[in-house]
Write a structure and sequence with these properties.
- The protein has 195 residues and is α+β, with helices and mostly antiparallel strands.
- It has two domains: 83 residues, no CATH class; 98 residues, no CATH class.
- The chain has four helices and twelve strands; from the N terminus they run ββαββββββββααβαβ.
- Strands 2-1-5-4-3 form a five-stranded antiparallel beta sheet, covered by helices on one side. It has a five-stranded antiparallel beta sheet with strand order 11-10-9-8-12.
- It is globular, with a radius of gyration of 19 Å.
- The two termini are 24 Å apart.
Length: 195
């Protein structure tokens, strides 16, 4: 088992995400993709290494190796690290882990499924910080004003929104609760059949 740990400390988000991969190649490929997307989003033109004599808030540098990557964009930092866990034993197929929730078409949601929230936000079913939910890439952060504006059209009620408002994660429980979903059918999610 190979673990890709992504850490961001920026004005947009402070947090980390852990993703498990069965092979080092898959973990490295994902790290390279995330690194390149982040460099592109920030306009590129980074120095290749840190200037030890310059203060961090004035530096723009980025580096990537086989097992780690780092981007310093003034005070914002983005890090990726691949860690091998030799003691991990596969107990069951990752795809077999059912969340207990279905999408609006009554399709069971499993870890790793690609889904679309409110026909707008594309994400992946994950288990994060003790909760099943939907994880979103850095370039697909959630627009909470839009999500909250959809409560009344979906439910017909003036519910008071109760979301944690993470930039790139929403728990299934938050969606079920705020959108008055019954019988564990999440009416604002649909499996992404394009994936």
């Amino acid at each position: 088992m190979f673990i890709l740990k992504e850490t961001e400390n920026s004005d947009v988000r402070c947090g980390s995400v852990i993703t498990n991969f069965e092979t080092m190649d898959k973990a490295q490929q994902r790290m390279r993709e995330l690194y390149q997307k982040t460099v592109d989003i920030m306009g590129g033109n980074f120095d290749a290494e840190e200037d030890e004599e310059c203060c961090p808030e004035n530096q723009r540098w980025a580096t990537i190796s086989a097992m780690s990557a780092h981007i310093q964009n003034c005070m914002d930092t983005y890090d990726w690290e691949i860690i091998e866990d030799p003691e991990w034993v596969k107990k069951k197929n990752y795809r077999d882990e059912d969340t207990g929730v279905t999408d609006k078409d009554f399709q069971e949601l499993f870890l790793g499924d690609k889904v679309v929230l409110l026909d707008r936000f594309h994400g992946t079913v994950v288990f994060e910080s003790g909760a099943y939910g939907i994880g979103f890439d850095i370039e697909n952060t959630l627009d909470w004003d839009y999500i909250e504006s959809q409560i009344k059209p979906v439910t017909g009620c003036d519910n008071q929104p109760a979301f944690c408002k993470n930039d790139n994660f929403v728990s299934l429980w938050e969606l079920l609760w705020n959108f008055n979903c019954e019988d564990d059918v999440c009416v604002v999610l649909v499996k992404d059949m394009e994936e």
